[in-house]
Structures are given as C-alpha cells and as structure tokens.
Amino acid sequence: MADVADYTPNVAVITGSAQGIGKAIALRLAEDGFAVVVSDLGTKQDKMDALVEEVRSKGGRAVAIPTDVTKEADIINLVDKTVEEFGGLDVMIANAGIGNASTFLEMSVELYDLIMNVNARGVMLCYKYAAQQMVKQKRGGRILGASSVLGKQSAGMYLAAYSASKFAVRGLTQSLAQEMAPHKVTVNAYCPGCIITDMVDNPALDATVGTGAPGGFIKYITGIPLDGPEAGPDVVASYVSYLCKPEAHFITGQSLSVCGGVRLS
Ligand SMILES: NC(=O)c1ccc[n+]([C@@H]2O[C@H](COP(=O)([O-])OP(=O)(O)OC[C@H]3O[C@@H](n4cnc5c(N)ncnc54)[C@H](O)[C@@H]3O)[C@@H](O)[C@H]2O)c1
C-alpha cells in the first residue's frame, strides 16, 4: 500500500469540467495547487476557456483540452497532451456523464448504448490510459470516477440505463484499485445524491412537483424527499480534494455517497 511519500500531487485532469460538478472540482484542485486540465466536449469550448481564465486569474495553472470521452483516440490525446503541457499526470477525475430518462419497457437500445458509452465506457477509457501513464511515471497517483447513489441502488422506473452505467463505474473502480495497489495509485468513486447542476435542473418538469424548485423532478422520480437536504457541487469537490491529497493514501476501491444521508450504504 502507498504511503504519503509515494505520491506527488501536481497535475490533474477533469473530464466533463466545463460546468457543474466537474467545474467545481477543477476550481478546487487548482486552489489546492494542481495544474488542471479542463476537458469537455468541443461544443463547450467557450465555457472551458472561461474556466481556464478564471483559474489563471487566481494565479493557477490551467489549459483546456476538448475531449469526447466516448472516443478512445480523444482520451489518448488527452493524456499525451497533458504530459506534454505539464510534464506528467497525477490525478484523473473521470467525471463526464449524461442522464436520460425512460421507462425500462420503452427504453431503446440506442438510448441504452448512448448512456453506457459515456458513463461506463468513457470512465473505462479514462481509467485505462491514466493508469498506464501513472505506471510509467512511477510516482503514484489518484484516479476517481463519477458514480451516483443510483450506482448503489436503483430508484424509480425511469433511470435503469443510468443506474446500470453507475453500477459499472463501481465495478471498474474496485477492479482497477486492486490492479494499481502495487503502483501506489488509489482508485475511488464518488456517488452524489441530488446535486443542483444543469443535469438535474429541468424547469418544465420541476414545475410539476412540489414548489417547482430546481431538481424537484429528479428527486421525485428517484424517491428523494423534496424537502430533503440541498447541496451544490462544492460538497463533491471538497470530498474529491481530500482523496487527492497524499494523506488519503489508505482509501482505495471505495465508492462514497455524498448525498446528505438520503441513501445509506
Ligand atoms: N448532479 C447530480 O445530482 C449528480 C448525481 C449523481 C451523479 N452525478 C454525476 O456527476 C457527473 C457530473 O454531473 P453534473 O451534475 O456536473 O452534470 P452536468 O450535465 O452539469 O455536467 C456534465 C458534463 O459532462 C460533459 N459531457 C457529456 N458527455 C460528454 C462526453 N461524451 N465527453 C466529454 N464530456 C461530456 C457535458 O458536456 C457536461 O459539461 C456525471 O457523471 C453525473 O452522472 C451527478
């Protein structure tokens, strides 16, 4: 097992970081002193550039590398360019994800494949190429993936594909954690509950439940109390920040829920 001295936190890549939880993680890791690689779909270039500027304006180091996590060549490019730019890769946050609702009986194969491609295959590719780079570097590392409380227990009848993809993230996380232990690389997942971001903010649907507050519809279909605890992306970012510190070397293969206690595991 790694000890504190076996890992030098320096360079972090965060996928899906143009907004939401990924953006909060990028800002937090930049504050912690990491050079950050902001990565998202090319369609979000403006948001990525704005985030890079925000980090730099506070004295941090950042670049944007557009990446579609479903494309293997993009992930190879992401790792290679990161190493070229900052001299290595110490932290990979495989955060990019999508959600889409359908009943199981009406779920198309196309919808299932789309969600699995981004949420599970995308995480597998990020894990694989980051791990290969970290083994080569011989200076330890941190690999994290975005699961969900729905990756521990399904909820409602609309999110089967999403739930399956997030269960997959936990399986990938446990497997890679075992394989990477000798290389001083820890591998963990974070499992948010309902965090208010664009992913859960559906004004038209939210208006149909409770007070119409953001996230209401997702809470309703996943069985989370409408009046339950609320949080923004920072609560996930602070947990990720801790796991990326040298002192967190003894935590690996775990998937911790960050959900205000609405699900216990
Ligand atoms: N918000 C929540 O309540 C919640 C709960 C549980 C898990 N999560 C997970 O946390 C992660 C971040 O979610 P968020 O709430 O910030 O969502 P978000 O929709 O605000 O951000 C997700 C980002 O991923 C990017 N993305 C989508 N497909 C991509 C692809 N193929 N390649 C690269 N980037 C891609 C999007 O462009 C977007 O910027 C996701 O994996 C999500 O499933 C979120």
Automatic annotation (TrEMBL):
Which PROSITE patterns has this protein been placed in? Answer: ADH_SHORT (PS00061)
Pfam annotation, one family: adh_short
| Coiled coil ranges | none
Keyword Translocase set for record: no
Superkingdom classification of source: Eukaryota
Gene Ontology MF terms: oxidoreductase activity, acting on the CH-OH group of donors, NAD or NADP as acceptor; quinone binding
* Biological process according to GO: fatty acid biosynthetic process
Q: Which UniProt keywords apply?
A: NADP
- Which PANTHER family does the record cross-reference, listed alphabetically? 3-OXOACYL-(ACYL-CARRIER-PROTEIN) REDUCTASE, SHORT-CHAIN DEHYDROGENASES/REDUCTASES FAMILY MEMBER
Family the UniProt entry places it in: Belongs to the short-chain dehydrogenases/reductases (SDR) family.
Query: Know the name of this protein?
Result: NAD(P)-binding protein
What is the native source organism of this protein?
A: Cristinia sonorae
